[in-house]
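Sample entry follows:

_____
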Amino acid sequence: MRGTIHLVSARDCLMLRPLIQPVLDRAMATVFGKRLADMNTRALASAGRALVEEKPRTFSELGVLLSPHWPGHTPASLAQGVRALVPLVQVPPRAVWGAAGQALHTTAESWLGRSLDPSPSPDVMIKRYLTAFGPATVADAQAWSGLTRLREVVERLRPGLRIFRDESGRALFDLPEAPRPGPDTPAPVRLVAEFDNLILSHADRSRVISDRSRQRLFTRNGIFPGTVLVDGFAAGIWRITRSRRAAALTVEPFGPISARDREAVTREADRLLGFAAADAGKHEIRFAAIA
């Protein structure tokens, strides 16, 4: 839950955003600490909020409008300060599938017509996390949220949770009513998106990807690639390239993939191209050589 773009429901936005403010404060201090030193952050947040609620604005525009009030600071650092301090949403057309446009921002409260949760509960947040990613350890929840000291929250919830142990004896917590398929239940092949939380939301990611393969996911430009899951485990990465009339999906396997699983990956890739490149006249699926 770092300071980047997330797709969430309105309900989760209003509940999660104030809870993770300490994470954003910490990130802002690390990245912009010197550039925003001695800054009255409350005044900056107030000025930024007024500007983006007047009308949605780009970060570039926001920084230029703020700079006369803080001439000793760069427009970029001022805009990024507002980004960390004020709950923002991107508005259409940038946020509409397949549409281009500059990223314009306004406040979550203005866009949704509702206030942030005045007393958000970390207990609810933990349950929301376990709904998606349980069974999980306390460390897993902290890796996902960026928050610390969640053990006391989990301990408070413990009487209402199911508790398991992993191979190392660590406690894994889950909701009592959560589905728990048997260990022999096959998981269908899936091509999950860039930055997918399934790959990012655990402190111990060896449950879904090997340490060696995980190193291949970190690119120089910071883009976390789409991942191919075979029986629930990361077996490669995928990418789509477009030309004027065609779209190609390339799978880069981490290792050998059986003929049966290769057919399943091909079917899933074909489904993905039908969604992501429906307007392309030609679809092609490629398998790169194992590196």
About this structure: The first helix runs from residue 10 to 19. Residues 122-174 form one domain. The chain has a mean pLDDT of 91.
